[in-house]
Amino acid sequence: MTLRVSRRIMFAAPFIAATSAVEGRAETAEGDFYAFLVGVRRDAIGRGIRASTVDLALRNAQFLPHVIELDRKQPERVLTFTQYMAKVITPQRKEDARRQLAENRVLLDAISRRYNVEPNIIVALWGLESDFGRLPGNIPTISALATLTYDGRRGAYFRSELIAALRILDQGHIRVEDMVGSWAGAMGQPQFMPSSFLDYAVDYDGDGRRDIWNSRGDVLASIANYIRGLGWRGGQSWGQDVLLPNGFNPGFAGLNARRPTGEWSRLGVRSIDAGPLAGRESEASLVMPEGANGPALLVYANFRAIMKWNPSTYFAVSVGYLADSMARG
């Protein structure tokens, strides 16, 4: 059946009296999005979320066809590593990153001391996730997650995230009308999924709310807390560009192949200036994002932490490159 975006189910005081009628409609109109929300309401309340919170959150929830289109759309063109880096690590972004690092230096230094994550890494993640807060997304999170849950392609995952989003509202961290983000439900300036918010978001400014949408302190501290929780090791490198000897076996590459740094040296791997490998990291993997004829990098445990944030080699390298550009700048 065709779902009209303009149609809304009213979850409010009269809702309880109308529940049986709506449930009856669900039996005769299987697949109706607004009847589906009745089950979400029941599930959320059964998990201890207040009925008043759920009713307010679902009152204006809408089915968003564009979200389904985005979820199913395949990229028309796959970027090479070199093209991706040129698109993401632009001169303007590097300049903006250095400026944000300088302008927020006192705050970042304090957060760095608390979480043992370097300021340039925090800024790099912030910049790549939302362009330093300028592009956090404007799609209502509840509607996006409800749409994706209803669609069913990854229904169990998105239903769990929807319940987590309702819990965030119930805890009073943000108003439902202000809870916005990406089409996939990633929220605020760090683009946290709701479950990540519950696990890692921080009330750094002490106002009683974990506000990753508007509070600069909460945003930056939450990024630091999250990457630390994923295994970041302060004071250690994420990786480095390297040179490979002629005839090097590309079969040695891959994140599953870990070798002591000394062994990579014995295989002829050298730093980009052709010197010996530096760094105190004991174990490394070789990454070749464009295959045998492209660039090569040795990456360490911190690279794996970034990959847990976003399981994309391109993204992880871009975080490292942007962070390094601030260190050099």
What does this 3D model show about the protein?
This protein has about 325 residues and is of the alpha+beta class. The chain has a domain at about 15-65 and about 140-185: Helicase, Ruva Protein, domain 3, CATH 1.10.8. The chain has 15 helices and seven strands. It has helices at about 15-30, 35-45, 50-60, 65-70, 80-90, 90-105, 105-115, 120-130, 140-150, 155-170, 195-200, 215-230, 260-265, 300-310, 315-329, and strands at about 140, 180, 240-245, 260, 270, 285, 295-300. It has a five-stranded antiparallel sheet. The chain has a two-stranded antiparallel ribbon with strand order 1-2. Strand 6 (about 285) and strand 7 form a beta hairpin. Helix 6 (about 90-105) packs across helix 8 and helix 6 (about 90-105) packs across helix 15. The relative contact order is 0.12.
Describe the secondary structure blueprint for this structure.
Layout: H1 15-28, H2 33-46, H3 51-58, H4 65-72, H5 81-88, H6 91-103, H7 105-115, H8 119-130, E1 139-140, H9 141-151, H10 155-170, E2 180-181, H11 194-200, H12 216-229, E3 239-243, E4 259-260, H13 261-266, E5 270-271, E6 283-287, E7 296-299, H14 301-309, H15 313-328
Antiparallel strand pairs: 1-2, 3-5, 3-7, 4-6, 6-7
Helix pairs in contact: 2-3, 4-9, 6-8, 6-15, 7-12, 8-12, 8-15, 9-10, 10-11, 11-12, 14-15
